[in-house]
Specification:
- The chain is an all-beta fold and about 90 residues long.
- It has one domain.
- The protein has no helices and seven strands.
- The chain has strands at about 5-10, 10-15, 20-30, 30-45, 55-60, 65-75, 80-85.
- A hairpin with a 2-residue loop joins strand 3 (about 20-30) and strand 4 (about 30-45).
């Protein structure tokens, strides 16, 4: 089944180093606080269009063992939770 990406705004607690919000430490989603145990991977995405915002991604494991993908957009100082959900079925599919 095909899936689409959904981006939900979240509140994130960060380690703030000399670059500002560098590393997520915990986040809240749907009323639950998730403490981050490990950052499994991190990368950034920049397009060729200088007007397009840069995104920093963090693949994290929580203390409960769950894995999440978080995205930080420095231009807007905003965090989102990235997840894939199934495409809705329509009558003509």
């Amino acid at each position: 089944m095909k899936k689409e990406w959904v981006f939900e705004e979240i509140e994130v607690e960060c380690y703030a180093g000399y670059k500002g919000q560098e590393t997520p430490r915990a986040f809240a989603h749907l009323g639950k606080r998730h403490e981050i145990f490990a950052i499994l991977d991190r990368w950034y995405e920049e397009g060729r269009d200088p007007k397009a915002p840069r995104h920093d991604y963090f693949k994290v494991r929580t203390k409960d063992g769950e894995i999440f993908l978080l995205r930080f957009t420095p231009r807007y100082q905003s965090w989102t939770l990235c997840r894939q959900v199934p495409f809705p079925k329509f009558s003509n599919n």
